Recover the amino acids of this structure.
């Protein structure tokens, strides 16, 4: 059993990326009650927008801008037909749209840009960001943590972005804007009767959360590579698990959720071979995921509001 | 109560669709059909400014549908209303509210998982912090927020909910939620308030104070239109009563006149033998 691995994953860019995405989903579900079942689509849009722009010679900032604009357009497209309808319609449309993004990404049609099903390799777009790294390009150890210099750089930037996003959520959650969104979550008609344009507020929430999802995608792409099949339906449900685990509608819930999710994942992956020595290695990961699913079921049964949530405010059974 | 000081209503003829001397809300030829069923077919309707108008009628008469049409929660197939000079046709419910006509709901819509104070503050208009970008810069909206909170405290005090301001609205009793909903509607500073069955599900001890609140609204210059089943209540507080049956206005007039109207009694008979409509006839 190697507890260092668990520590490594807690600080890793992957955890930061998913924390960002989960904060985005918190704007959707925790604040506004929008059932976005295709958050992985926003992450994919973000990573494609960034990686393609940078791979074609654009700057980092242009890449980020393109990825955010992509998320805004995606949110507008999804929200325009569905936000006037009941919440279920958004759920159906988002789940389908996210799959469409993935399938278009992996198809041969745009292979020149997206790399088809192999995706975009890291060395095609990571260089401009890594060149900014103040660390030496070698493995650097800090206490029990040991990462490559460029990964340290990504960790710092990634977690800074998470802190910024959490700060944004904290500020907006406690603002009159956040109050209207919570009103929408509780009862749209009541908010309408008080003279607020519900549609516009829902759209704003969808856009903000989507942009944060795209930001998560950018961080994830830097930590790994652009790989359409790594952002499928399952990924969306991971993000939901993180949000519900940590506690929806809380500032730190999504971050705690992401950290616990990945720590649990690595822990189970390490534990499985010890308990079941005959288990083939390629089945360890599916088993770990099965346990994560079990964890989600237990969570909903015993603590529907999540670890940090206020049961009175948001719980699944309300 | 309503009949004391010089009453404009004594001069108005008690016939359906009669014109009022100073109408704040006028509806013309409003038809709403659901498939083959005509739920509402109102030829003409006017509500007098600064008065309490009651809308009564048996179940299924189309009162709530008429309410929804007037407040933009539903759109009529034909006809339109004019509120305070503004044509209501095609106006969204939010814009109707912003124009100064605010409604409550038959099934109370308290925002349960928000505090009582947050419920109240949501009613306030002109809070620039509801703009997403401005929301990020607190100094831009802090002052307005203070004013809103002060306004909410005054109203909560009046509705005896001040000590509950930090509780979740969902923890209030049914009657208290009705009061909260009414107080919240008042936060918008409406010119006209539309109450959909304000007494439904409220215990008798609270109805008394609810009635007082409604009369108080009128004294403050707010126009009230309310749907109600309880004839006692209607008789006690309303200046004018409009009766609907099968989607049409079949009678209107001062409370006592209307309740002695044969058509009204016929409309109620059948499903409403037991209303005290007849009991109090002298």
């Amino acid at each position: 059993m190697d507890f260092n691995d668990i520590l490594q994953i807690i600080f890793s860019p992957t955890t930061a990326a998913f924390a960002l995405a989960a904060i985005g989903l918190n704007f959707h579900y925790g604040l506004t009650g929008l059932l976005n079942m295709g958050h992985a689509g926003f992450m994919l849009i973000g990573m494609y927008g960034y990686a393609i722009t940078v791979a074609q010679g654009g700057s980092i900032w242009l890449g980020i801008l393109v990825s955010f604009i992509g998320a805004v357009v995606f949110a507008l497209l999804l929200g325009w037909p569905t936000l006037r309808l009941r919440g279920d319609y958004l759920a159906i449309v988002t789940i389908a749209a996210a799959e469409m993004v993935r399938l278009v990404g992996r198809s041969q049609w745009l292979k020149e840009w997206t790399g088809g099903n192999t995706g975009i390799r890291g060395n095609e777009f990571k260089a401009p960001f890594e060149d900014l790294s103040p660390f030496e390009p070698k493995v650097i150890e800090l206490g029990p943590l040991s990462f490559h210099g460029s990964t340290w750089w990504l960790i710092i930037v990634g977690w800074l972005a998470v802190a910024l996003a959490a700060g944004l959520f904290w500020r907006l959650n406690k603002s009159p804007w956040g109050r209207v969104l919570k009103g929408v979550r509780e009862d749209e008609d009541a908010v309408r009767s008080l003279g607020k344009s519900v549609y516009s507020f829902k759209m704003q929430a969808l856009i903000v959360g989507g942009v944060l999802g795209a930001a998560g995608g950018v961080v994830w792409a830097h930590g790994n590579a652009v790989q359409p099949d790594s952002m499928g339906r399952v990924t969306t449900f991971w993000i939901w698990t993180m949000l519900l685990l940590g506690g929806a509608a809380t500032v730190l819930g999504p971050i705690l959720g992401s950290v616990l999710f990945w720590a649990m994942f690595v822990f189970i992956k390490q534990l499985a071979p010890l308990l079941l020595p005959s288990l083939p290695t390629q089945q360890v990961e599916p088993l770990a995921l099965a346990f994560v699913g079990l964890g989600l079921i237990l969570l909903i049964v015993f603590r529907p509001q999540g670890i940090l949530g206020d049961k009175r405010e948001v719980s699944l059974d309300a | 109560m309503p009949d004391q000081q010089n009453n404009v209503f004594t001069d108005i003829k008690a016939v359906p669709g009669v014109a009022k001397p100073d109408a704040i809300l006028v509806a013309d030829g409003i038809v709403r059909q659901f498939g083959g069923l005509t739920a509402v077919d109102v030829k003409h309707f006017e509500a007098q400014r600064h008065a309490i108008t009651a809308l009564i009628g048996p179940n299924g008469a189309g009162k709530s549908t008429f309410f929804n049409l007037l407040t933009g929660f539903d759109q009529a197939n034909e006809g339109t209303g004019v509120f305070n000079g503004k044509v209501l046709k095609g106006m969204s419910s939010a814009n109707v509210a912003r124009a100064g006509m605010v409604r409550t709901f038959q099934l109370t819509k308290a925002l349960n998982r928000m505090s009582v104070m947050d419920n109240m503050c949501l009613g306030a208009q002109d809070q620039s912090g509801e703009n997403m970008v401005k929301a990020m810069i607190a100094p831009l909206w802090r002052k307005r927020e203070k004013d809103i909170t002060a306004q909410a405290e005054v109203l909560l005090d009046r509705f005896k909910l001040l000590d509950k301001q930090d509780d979740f609205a969902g923890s209030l009793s049914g009657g208290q939620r009705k009061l909260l909903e009414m107080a919240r509607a008042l936060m918008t500073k409406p010119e006209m308030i539309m109450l959909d069955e304000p007494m439904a599900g409220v215990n008798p001890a609270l109805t008394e104070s609810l009635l007082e609140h409604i009369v108080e609204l009128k004294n403050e210059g707010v126009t009230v239109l309310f749907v109600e089943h309880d004839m006692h209540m209607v008789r006690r507080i309303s200046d004018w009563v409009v009766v609907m049956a099968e989607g049409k206005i079949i009678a209107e007039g001062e409370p006592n006149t209307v309740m002695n109207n044969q058509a009204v009694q016929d409309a109620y008979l059948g499903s409403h033998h037991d209303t005290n409509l007849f009991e109090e006839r002298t």
Q: What stands out?
A: The CA atoms of residues 240 and 286 of chain A lie 18 Å apart. Chain A is about 70% helix and 5% strand. The mean pLDDT of chain A is 91.
